[in-house]
Aspartokinase
Amino acid sequence: MSQSLIVAKFGGTSVADFDAMNRSADIVLSDANTRLVVLSASAGITNLLVSLAEGQELEQRAYLLDEIRTIQYAIIDRLQAPDVIRQEIDRMLENILMLAEAAALATSAALTDELVSHGELMSTLLFVEILRERQINAEWFDVRKVMRTSDRFGRAEPDVDTLQSLCAAQLAPRISEALVITQGFIGSESKGRTTTLGRGGSDYTAALLGEALHAARVDIWTDVAGIYTTDPRVVPTAKRIEEISFEEAAEMAIFGAKVLHPATLLPAVRSDIPVFVGSSKDPAAGGTRVCNETPNPPLFRALALRRKQTLLTLHSPNMLHAHGFLAEVFAILARHNISVDLVTTSEVNVALTLDTTGSTSSSDSLLTQALLTELSSLCRVEVEENLALVAIIGNNLSKACGVGKEVFGALEPFNLRMICYGASSYNLCFLVPTPDAEEVVRALHQNLFGA
Ligand code: ASP
Ligand code: MG
């Protein structure tokens, strides 16, 4: 069975309403090897739940709950026999209300995860019902039975070994009996409390389950027909990439291309499982295949853009001929749970950007007063916000000749605030002022990929 198993994941827009769910059901049923389906919450639901988890006043709670009910009832209302499932969803809504009341008294990360998990719990219940009305032997599976994670609520890490053995014991047997529908994004820690893998984590769930079940492929169905040379909203002539390597796709995800959750490819790479990315609105349009090796990897593959970068420049005359300064800086950052993204150094300066990948709900800067105070005791600190990171993804970039000319030739009119090149042969990246960012991407795209 597992030799040809496909795990299919559908994102929020692919299960947004009755029609979207049916389009996704068509995709599932079009390939008999698809035996496990992983779903996000219906579009919009997670944001509403996060808002409730932040602790709201009575009227706002009622309003948000109503919004959630409206989205899910719109699906129920189109079922042939809506009564039983309506009761189940009503029970979920009661739970949500109770948890939202608790959050209004005192918020907590554990409570937030318990609350937001209801989005995926509801979408999967509804999807099973849609399949059953189409006479399919579909089964709802609570992924928390197998997705064991750490107790870092909001951004839990999976315990891959436990996941593997729990899947073999509990999930694999179900898959051989029925088409199994389960939740992305959520898990549980060793005491049984609900956790989440971080926003957008359903892709990661699909890849983790695919790995645990030795799937032949993981299909990620979203609202874009694959991975493009850059964001088509910025460059309308961006081209779809038919095949891309794990390394390149991982770089793209990390550097801000929003197609895949950055962690998705870890299990895929580890276990060499190809990942397909396509649009559930238009499956016939095809998509992008992400796999171990691609024929003739090009020097330049794609451009990614990540906004809201914070650059810290640290100045310390003591650094001259001294050692241990960088170690101290990194130790301070580590104590504040901040990982560094880009770094450049000179004799008495260090410039670095803070890594914001995977940070949860708010997109606020990670920079806190406590961190600044601690750094300032060591050196002079300059902070620049409002920068954007442009990353060029490619192959052998650090080994080829002429890369600098081709890249920077097109960027003459722009200020490049910082350049990182040489650490990875898969990327070259630099910071530009945010107002220039899209222009820079367009100029580069034109130069590297043509019109
Ligand atoms: N529903 C979750 C979110 O909106 C997880 C996901 O969609 O992947 O972040
Ligand atoms: Mg999503």
In short: Residues 11-12, 40-41, 46, 119, 184-185, 199-202 surround aspartic acid (ligand 1) (CB under 6 Å). Residues 6-222 form a domain with the Carbamate kinase fold (CATH 3.40.1160.10). The chain is about 40% helix and 20% strand. The radius of gyration is 23 Å.
